[in-house]
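Per-residue structure
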Amino acid sequence: MSSSDQVWDVIVIGGGAAGLMAAFSAAECGRQVLLLEKNRKLGVKILMSGGTRCNITHDCGPKEIATAIGEQGRFLYPALGALPPDQVVSLIESCGVPTKIETTGKIFPASDRAIDVRDALVSLAESAGAEIRTLQPVTHIARESDAFLVHTELANFRARRLILTTGGQSYPGCGTTGDGYPWAASLGHTLVPPVAALTPIRTTDPGPKQLSGMTLPSTGVTVVDPGGQPPEVIARQQGSILFTHFGFSGPAIMNVSRAINRHDSPARLMLNLDFVCRESTEHFQSRFRDLLEAQGRSSVANLTIEDVPRRLLRYLLDRAEIPSETRAAELHRDQFTRLVREMKCASFPVSGTLGFKKAEVTAGGISLEEINSRTMESKTCPGLFLAGEVIDIDGPIGGYNFQAAFSTGWLAGQNV
């Protein structure tokens, strides 16, 4: 194993979104920066994200980003102020990568190629003078009197400042296997137990398998613990869902998965789906009565109901134990009540999630209480800076997590 006498101003460990931005930010400030990445490729999760399109950020201001992230959002205010969404877009576009805003507010590269975003970040870091070395798996970090000693499988490196951007545990196939947690712990930090977030949900109900592949653009999703009196709602979302052979996926489903993984007994939870969530129950009942009257000669299986595809309607009729050949005009009161209930609150038992293997982000990580939000420097280990998914911040689908990574990485780089 080789060792260099050079003492770098800054070593960044992890070449993902936060690490590349941190390396660029620090190098632009005139620091001698070395970025170490264990994979052959940089930004592997960037390349996979958004279906290989990369949802860079969201079309909104810093306050909206913080609000969407929730309780942890307040911690992000200094970082988001230092590098807000519009400046992230400007940096990417300055590398010749035009962007576009979709109707959902998500911002993507106009090319729909995640590799263009990754290459732009690498270009920013290298153009600013950062040195990047791949295939350098870090094995150990030690604090010396005036520096950090970083051991890899191939060499030893020293630095006056260290930025830890190793990510969490989501998609471990990308190399994000929680490496940074024990290193941070060895330097005095405590962890909020990591759980998978933004991951699909499993059910033992065979219904979703029958509907596998169907996407619904607007569905109300509620996770309920039926054990309480009244039953406790632990998460609620509205948006697109996808039926799968194992259960459910799609943005609205994945956004509630953290609450399931945080629960003491996920298997006792129920997932309630409202397929006509844009209307109250009373309004939908009134409209449905009018529809039954107008299409009275049709069988209920052939009704045209906004937001309820016929394939879904036939499935809901089976759940409500209503023969599909029943004429609309002949639907009994109790059948009407059962069918409305299925359309407004179809309930499925939760058997868990697909976990870290298919999670887009990690909830939990290095405690925010031990990090200075104005600098991203550790409160327990001076000279150590932390950014990105390795810290206890996670948000919903929509570019919020990349924005948090970019902003915290940038702020850390500015303050080393």
